Amino acid sequence: MFSPEGPRLRELAVQALSSVEHGYDLLAPKFDHTPFRTPDSVLDATTEALRSSGPFDAGLDLCCGTGAGIDVLRQVCRGSVTGVDFSTGMLTVARERARPQGPAVGWVRADARALPFGPVFDLVVSFGAFGHFLPRELPGLFTQVHSVLRPGGRFVFPVVAPPRPGSLTYGMLLGFDAVMRVRNAVRRPPFVMYYRAVRFGDMGRELTRTGLRVELRALPEFGRRRDGSPRVRLVVATRPGAGRSAAGPVDA
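-> structure tokens emitted (252 positions)
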């Protein structure tokens, strides 16, 4: 799960007892050596899917962390690229590790629930951030995304099919969420990081209620489950209006 360069158990304990912001400030130098970082395979598959419907102009990586999604945007955007996160530590590491090739990158420290932008982006991506938002926060979060998209702009993010009940992965995620709930019941400020709190169906409904047109695209690199459903999908939520049409075939 963790490479030798990753955080030790004591470091993880200190981070988990902090606020989300401070915890990720502490984790930032070693974040890329943890399983919390989106795998390169998912980033690469997302890049290829976006290439088939690009290029785009201005791109935003929502909750950019150490900048893994920035590399995706720089390959599919011909204009400006921006990373936004509320962790100063994450943004510092992202700046240090940014590659020199491609469009210039702007880094902004801000809360995703109060984005300091107008409708200036053609593409917004996000990787692995939704576990830091409670279900009741989704409407406000998606309203913010809608507000920064130009007409025809897209909000794109990958989703992995949930593990089957009874599987080892299912048990591990269930146990992790239970530990976090106990921690947040006895200590403040809370550390919001839940793997099972935000459900895919809820996200789709809230995106639609926000006014975005939601379509799904299977990422064929990851194959299908026994029931025939894709293991990994790309959610493409488009703000209606003039501009590009939604990307790719729909695979629900």
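Strands lie at 59-62, 81-85, 105-109, 121-125, 149-160, 213-218, 232-238.
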